[in-house]
């Protein structure tokens, strides 16, 4: 096992992205040392500061610079003085699309010491497999007659057979490795072209793999996440439905500060990107109180993707154990600062008992 070495690009980004990222890299380094691998971090100073001095979120050849890395660890991007579509389309969306990160994977479970706002959520444990590069978030469309009474806007949803097959295959594999329950989010009663196509292709893929799909209208599925969250195992959803249902599920699990998200290119032709679900949180940035668990969990997903399963498990166990011991940041009702929580995790990363 000697010589396992990885090159990871770090885009800490804005606001608390900077604060939670240093927690993650120090803990990953500790886990790496304990498990016999190493990571070379390539720091990228991209994001809103870069935008203010260069007029772009990343260099012209930014994607080329990332292309030979093993993975990308992202903090958060977004600043109050820059429009959110600029920060999103200038960095995150180009990375997701250029590197064909067509799976957005969001595990959701209730961590120790985190309480759900739901009454009946004990044991909630699901993963959302969101299509990440096509669907409703397309550039196809346009606007006409701006500012006039005739003004109109059209935006087309794009679903391809290849795109739906590959996301369905990924979700089927997840379900088979878990409880075997696959729920597909749809709206084929109202959206009769793209969503009927989605239903057909998902069913074909699942049937070929010997799995039954539980097809559910997105509105009813939203209610089920709230009322019977434990009945869900793997949810496969289009880009828009997956976006909404994963935030709903993350909220059901208690705190935005702990939720992770992975943008994966499953064939590993390109680097995948791992990030917390939360944003740059300008309201608490600079105070040293951000919860680093979402970033730590994202880093654990990165280790899993790199094949470092023992490291991933060790890191996950370390932050779960710190939470269980009552070390918690303020968003979880505790008193710990980011640095104090990180120290508690770090001590557990190297603990060999
Ligand atoms: P946000 O996630 O930054 O903050 C929402 C609320 O949750 C705030 O009250 C914040 O203090 C709290 N919060 C978030 N993460 C936390 C953590 N780790 N520990 C403790 N409390 C935490 O969402 P918001 O305010 O809507 O967006 C702020 C900026 O972040 C915007 O510019 C937005 O575009 C950007 N954003 C970026 C994302 C990304 O980089 N992927 C994702 C979401 C938002
Ligand atoms: Mg979202």
UniProtKB/TrEMBL annotation:
It is an enzyme of class 1 (oxidoreductase). Pfam families: Iso_dh (PF00180). Its cofactor is Mn(2+); Mg(2+). It catalyses: (R)-malate + NAD(+) = pyruvate + CO2 + NADH. One of its GO terms (molecular function) is NAD binding. The keyword Membrane does not apply. Residues 7-345 form the Isopropylmalate dehydrogenase-like domain. It comes from the Bacteria. Its EC number is 1.1.1.83. Coiled coil: none annotated. The keyword Cell division does not apply. Keywords: Lyase, Manganese, Metal-binding, NAD, Oxidoreductase. PANTHER family: D-MALATE DEHYDROGENASE [DECARBOXYLATING]. Belongs to the isocitrate and isopropylmalate dehydrogenases family. This is D-malate dehydrogenase (decarboxylating).
């Amino acid at each position: 096992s000697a010589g396992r070495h990885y090159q990871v690009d770090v885009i800490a980004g804005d606001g608390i992205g900077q604060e939670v990222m240093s927690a993650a890299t120090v803990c990953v380094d500790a886990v790496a040392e304990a498990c016999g691998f190493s990571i070379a971090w390539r720091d990228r100073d991209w994001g809103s500061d870069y935008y203010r001095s260069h007029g772009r979120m990343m260099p012209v050849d930014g994607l080329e610079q990332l292309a030979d890395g093993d993975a990308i660890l992202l903090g958060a991007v977004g600043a109050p003085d820059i429009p959110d579509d600029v920060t999103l389309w200038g960095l995150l969306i180009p990375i997701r699309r250029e590197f064909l990160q067509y799976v957005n994977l969001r595990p959701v479970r209730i961590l120790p010491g985190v309480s759900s706002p739901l009454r009946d959520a004990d044991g909630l444990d699901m993963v959302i497999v969101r299509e990440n590069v096509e669907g409703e978030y397309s550039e196809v469309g346009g606007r006409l007659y701006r500012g006039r009474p005739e003004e109109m806007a059209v935006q087309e949803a794009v679903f391809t057979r290849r795109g739906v097959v590959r996301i369905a295959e990924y979700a089927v594999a997840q379900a088979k490795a878990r409880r075997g329950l696959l729920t597909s989010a749809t709206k084929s009663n109202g959206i009769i072209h793209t969503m009927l196509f989605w239903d057909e292709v998902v069913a074909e893929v699942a049937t070929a793999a010997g799995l039954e799909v539980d097809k559910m209208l997105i509105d009813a599925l939203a209610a089920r996440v709230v009322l019977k969250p434990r009945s869900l195992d793997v949810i496969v959803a289009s880009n828009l439905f997956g976006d909404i249902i994963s935030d709903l599920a993350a909220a059901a699990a208690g705190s935005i500060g702990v939720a992770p998200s992975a943008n994966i290119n499953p064939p590993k032709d390109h680097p995948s990107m791992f990030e917390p679900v939360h944003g740059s949180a300008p309201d608490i940035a600079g105070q040293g109180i951000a919860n680093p668990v979402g970033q730590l969990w994202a880093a654990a997903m990165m280790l899993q993707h790199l094949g470092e399963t023992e490291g991933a498990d060790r890191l996950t166990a370390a932050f779960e154990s710190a939470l269980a011991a009552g070390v918690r940041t303020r968003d979880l009702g505790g008193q710990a600062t980011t640095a104090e929580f990180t120290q508690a995790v770090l001590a557990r990363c190297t603990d060999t008992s």
